[in-house]
Design a protein that fits this description.
The complex is a heterodimer. By secondary structure, chain A is mostly helical. Chain A has eight helices and three strands, in the order H-H-H-H-H-H-E-E-E-H-H. Classes of the chains: A mainly alpha, B mainly alpha.
Chain lengths: 221, 510
């Protein structure tokens, strides 16, 4: 008791202890994983993002899409991610090799997007959905992003303008909606999201890439 | 007895100008030895400017952050609200809220508290107070850059770490470093042999935060490594920065206001080191089920359960100090806020351990439950602590009492009612959302629809909290700007000698 009292009265020892504990935690949860995960390589089916898609990814980050949409599929033994049609298998570290930074997300105010490009490959759909989500999904609480588009009168529309196909009761009369480059880039990124290619079982079985669920993926459901 | 006007006591050289008889008279009126009074006055005078400046900045951020929070909250149930401008889109406003309240309000308020506490605790003046002031200015600029950058669409893309690394980063690092330097110099120059618990926590916070920030902002992560670094930082910035300083405050104010020593010195040692050991390994529980190696996530779940040890140690220590004296909360606004903050710390920590368990997490993960949880910690604990600290410290720096008992009452009641409604409404929304998501027979739509009433409740709660903050800001402004309206004779909540001013020596004499 006396000893511990003395120890705690020396600021240098308290500081050293505090430093050492944090340094060991950093080693365990950041440095060691970084070394282990260095060997992870992308499947041949996964292409690096194009410049256009990377720009779209930046638009995704800028406007905070990640705060409502996750990009990860979890084990079907544990969740309904696969049942919902968001993906056919849990995602693995190999699926994220080109992601800097990660956009795994922590909220599902909206649905998961890691395979949205495979699920909804239509550029028209995505453009209209970004311009006016409730034109396509009545119950949606997603914000509209009108600032990614220009509203023009039909005669102002140029030859190279990408016109968004608005119609139905919510369309404004006499106005043509044209996508700005940011909207096109964002849609290119969304459509590129597809991690449905198969992953080898041998890959899943290694220690480094066992998914964080009850039994691990190797001994799945 | 010589009357010494209160205002004079606050000036730096006052002790030198008073005759020994005068010093003795003032000290006697507070139940102190003359040397002790002198130490205390010098300590307070040395930190006065830096602390008041930081408190003012903090309150400014609190108002800004509250408004952003309200806008973001309304958008979640009324998505057509303010959609025309990019800077007002949900993803930006929500993040501006997070930065304004955590790095603006919470951080500035608790740094201010720490700069006031440290000299008092080590019986010294604040060394390098000028560094601290310059540091506070730089840090504030850094936070402002972060908030503006997020609104303007410049974000590094990781939660809690959005402020641009190479623009806001240098201001935050240099600013925080200068403040830390001032605190470390103060500890080194100390006159007391003993280091009180609060000193460990504050010292720890200023060692831990730079380490965490560098790890979180390291620019070379790839893929899921960046998720690990992200949640390592985002979880620990609460535990090792905001929580650490807040616990330092709780360990000071509860015994101080009650005039009663802390329940157990041994327990406080256990609490401190076990917090460091276990909390630091918790971060990966934000990624349960995610595409990371199982052992990482399991490590964090186990560490989260072990959090029972520091939490129990700290809870027993703080609550046993108060037991039998809860009545004193009626007389001291500081005690009200700090004791409730302490209870919220216990609650939020146990909730956190529980939520990390896989069986619970499969319901609550990706839902509003997590947001409610973070407000138990960030508001009911950290923010209440900061309010309590300000109610105690500002009168001692300005040597006058808070002008209005009514404003304090309104502030407290709205803050408590608001956060209670917030947590209940949003936790409920999170649970129904999680259960709907787990039922494969329900379409996704149901998980959206069923949360809407809870989200409305949260918006109402947010507006109540914002009202509380404006009342507090107005009161602070009255206190600082209008000395003639300040009531000196009758301090808040009590006609007789308030507990607020009871010193340990007096408590012993009674």
């Amino acid at each position: 008791m006396k000893m511990s009292g003395d120890f705690m009265a020396r600021s240098s020892l308290v500081a050293l202890g505090a430093f050492a504990i944090m340094a060991s935690a950093i080693t365990i949860l950041v440095v060691i994983p970084k070394i282990m995960l260095r060997q992870v390589q992308a499947m041949p089916e996964l292409q690096p993002y194009t410049e256009e898609q990377l720009r779209g990814r930046q638009v995704y980050i800028q406007n905070g899409c990640l705060y409502c949409h996750s990009q990860q599929i979890r084990d079907p033994a544990f969740t309904t991610d696969v049942d919902r049609g968001w993906g056919s298998r849990p995602t693995v570290p190999e699926d994220y090799v080109y992601d800097r930074p990660h956009l795994l997300g922590t909220m599902r105010t909206g649905p998961d997007l890691i395979n949205v490009g495979q699920r909804i490959p239509s550029e028209d759909w995505h453009l209209l959905h970004l311009y006016d989500p409730r034109a396509l999904v009545a119950w949606s609480t997603m914000p509209a992003f009108p600032f990614l588009f220009e509203e023009k009168s039909p005669e102002e529309v140029g030859e190279n303008d990408r016109v968004v196909p608005t119609s139905g009761p919510r369309a404004k009369e006499g106005i043509t909606v044209v996508a700005k480059p940011d909207a096109l880039a964002l849609v290119a990124y969304l459509i590129s999201l597809d991690r449905q290619y198969p992953v080898a079982d041998s890959l899943r079985a290694t220690d480094q890439v066992v998914v964080g669920t009850r039994g691990g993926m190797g001994d799945g459901p | 007895m010589t009357a010494v006007p209160g205002d004079q006591l606050a000036s730096a050289d006052v002790v030198g100008r008073l005759t020994p008889q005068e010093v003795e008279a003032v000290a006697g009126s507070r139940g102190l030895a003359p040397e002790d009074l002198e130490i205390r006055l010098r300590a307070d005078a040395s930190s006065r400017r830096a602390v008041l400046a930081l408190f003012a900045v903090a309150i400014g951020w609190l108002l800004v952050g509250s408004i952003f929070g309200d806008i973001a909250s309304i958008k979640l149930h009324t998505p057509e609200f303010l959609t025309n401008h990019a800077w007002l889109t949900f993803g930006r406003v929500r993040t501006a809220h997070l930065h304004a309240v955590n790095y603006g309000w919470g951080t500035a308020a608790l740094i201010g508290m720490s700069l006031w506490l440290m000299p008092r605790l080590v019986h010294s003046e604040l060394k390098g107070a000028r560094f601290a002031i310059v540091g506070a200015v730089l840090f504030t600029i850094g936070v402002a850059i972060g908030v503006v950058a997020v609104l303007a669409g410049y974000s590094d893309g990781m939660e809690w770490l959005e402020a641009p690394r190479w623009v806001a980063g240098p201001f935050l690092v240099i600013g925080g470093g200068l403040i830390g330097l001032s605190l470390f110099r103060t500890v080194i120059s100390r006159q007391s042999e003993h280091l009180y618990v609060s000193v460990w926590y504050i010292l720890g916070a200023f060692i831990w935060f730079p380490m965490l920030y560098v790890v979180g902002k390291w620019p070379t992560y790839n893929g899921v490594e960046s998720a690990a670094a992200n949640w390592f930082f985002a979880h620990n910035v609460l535990g090792f920065w905001l929580t650490a300083m807040s616990l330092g405050g709780a360990y000071y104010f509860i015994p101080k206001v009650l005039g009663r020593p802390i329940y157990s010195y041994q327990l406080s040692i256990v609490g401190f080191w076990s917090l460091a050991m276990f909390y630091s390994l918790n971060g990966m529980h934000h990624l349960v089920g995610g595409p990371l190696p199982t052992w990482m996530i399991t490590t964090s779940i186990v560490a989260s359960v072990f959090m029972f040890i520091p939490v129990a140690a700290t809870a027993i220590n703080l609550h046993m100090t108060v037991v039998g004296r809860f009545g004193a909360m009626r007389y001291s606004p500081t005690l009200r806020f700090v004791v409730i903050g302490g209870l919220a710390y216990t609650a939020v920590s146990l909730q956190g351990s529980f939520t990390a368990l896989r069986e619970v997490n499969r319901v609550t993960h990706f839902t509003h439950w997590t947001v409610a949880h973070s407000h138990v910690g960030g508001y009911a604990f950290v923010t209440f602590l900061a309010f309590g600290a300000m109610y105690y410290i500002v009168p001692r720096l300005l040597e006058r009492e808070w002008p209005s008992e009514r404003l304090i009452r309104w502030h407290f009641n709205l803050a408590l009612g608001g956060v209670a409604l917030y947590v209940v409404a949003l936790s409920w929304a999170g649970v129904v959302q999680g259960l709907a998501l787990l039922d494969p027979s329900l379409p996704f739509e149901e998980s959206v629809r069923r949360t809407i009433p809870g989200l409305w409740g949260r918006s109402l709660a947010g507006l109540i909290l914002t009202a509380a903050h404006f009342i507090f800001a107005y009161h602070f402004w009255l206190m600082v700007r209008r000395p003639e309206r300040a009531v000196r004779v009758r301090p808040p909540f009590h006609d007789a000698r308030p507990v607020l001013y009871t010193t340990r020596a007096e408590a012993g004499r009674r």
